[in-house]
Amino acid sequence: MTKDITLLLLQLGNLFVSIGIWLVLAVVFCRIKYKTLKGFWGNIGIRKPKEKTLGGNIIIAVAGYLFTILMYIVLKVVNGGMTAELLAKEREAMSVPMLLLCILIVGLRSGIGEEIFFRGVVAGHLFEKMKFGTANILQALIFMLPHIVTFFKLPGLESGLLLVNAFVFGLAAGKIMQRSESIVPTIIYHGVVNIIAIPIAWYLL
Fold this sequence. Notes:
Shape: globular
Helix content: over 70%
Structural class: mainly alpha
Strand content: under 5%
Number of strands: 0
Order of helices and strands: HHHHHHHH
Radius of gyration: 18 Å
């Protein structure tokens, strides 16, 4: 039980620190761009999604997630799966309830924090400055960059596929944001994808 509580506190700490860092970056950007923080939440896309976009957004989200599944299948067939030893150690360190709770926290951490910055700030700014196609590719590339640090220790094929997956995810999230004129759907999309993808990686790969 003590180990579970420690893991929970660590994950909660990571949740608040991660969201806090991305939020601070968003505040700094908006303060520089708009000279004020008035209307901050609207400026980063925290608003009601545009009506009649739900169906199309679901199609885009499903297509993006199917690409993730395809990546996992390729890793399984060609590479024997993801880094199995590391994943096994993570599973063994947690009880099942704690594992499920940690998966939820990880999904919230990336879904909220990263979307506030990469879609709310980066994509929102680029969409104002250039054509959508160019802006969407550029924001997806920028979203992919920090993942290089995350994945660089992994084997070559695994690292490469995960980076491509991050880029494709960024494209899908950018399109959902552009259709919705809000980052609320992209926060949900990002969180749900991670919450579903983590157990697949743990238990099937």
